[in-house]
Amino acid sequence: MKADRKRLKAEKADLVNQMQQLYATLESREEQLRDFIRNYEQHRKSLCVIAVLSLFFLSRDEASGFCYINDVVLGILRLREKYERVLYVDVDLHHGDGVEDAFSFTSKVMTVSLHKFSPGFFPGTGDVSDTGLGKGRWYAVNVPLQDGIQDDKYYQVFQSVLTEVHAAFNPEAVVLQLGADTMAGDPMCSFNMTPVGVGKCLQYVLQWELPALILGGGE
């Protein structure tokens, strides 16, 4: 019994420590986002880069894909306090299902996800026919891609889709999630992108000269 109590006490202390670290991380990201918004209000142009893993799989009622807090959704909600229309662009091997689900019923946030889509591949969502629900109908854009895609073809698709999205939605701010798992040599062994190709996608979005929140990603 004494050994069990000691073990439970140690597990409780470890859990408390993990939660404290989590809250500290969230507070840091919250402050970064607040600084980003304040800076844009002062200078009318701003770029915020948070180069850490984005936890975008999480849905409202369950953890998913190693994600237990969807910081991307929290960031978009904060931006929505200032900006009427926010565009989320997901450049990641996996479908950004958690973010899409969070805003699937609104026309104020448009989500665009370019991802691998094949039977048995996580999370199994993101078909081209998934376009949003209710008032959010047509405000979710999914672009399923096949294995082996390289920089030139990816950028061609990216530019074509984002040109139409920008013209139709006219966003006031943009959140861009850049997944490292699109890279050639990644353990997932699917896409064959390079930093140059991903950089071209980033440059294309930045040319809009909108307030932009840039996030890291990739499992």
Automatic annotation (TrEMBL):
It comes from the Eukaryota. InterPro entries: HDACs (IPR000286), His_deacetylse_dom (IPR023801), His_deacetylse_dom_sf (IPR037138), Kazrin_N (IPR059089), Ureohydrolase_dom_sf (IPR023696). Residues 5-46 form a coiled coil. The keyword Membrane does not apply. Keywords: Chromatin regulator, Coiled coil, Hydrolase, Nucleus, Repressor, Transcription, Transcription regulation. Its main location: nucleus. Residues 1-45 form the Kazrin N-terminal domain. It is an enzyme of class 3 (hydrolase). Residues 60-218 form the Histone deacetylase domain. Pfam families: Hist_deacetyl (PF00850), Kazrin (PF25986). The keyword Magnesium does not apply. GO terms for molecular function: histone deacetylase activity, hydrolytic mechanism. Belongs to the histone deacetylase family. HD type 1 subfamily. This is histone deacetylase. It comes from Acipenser ruthenus.
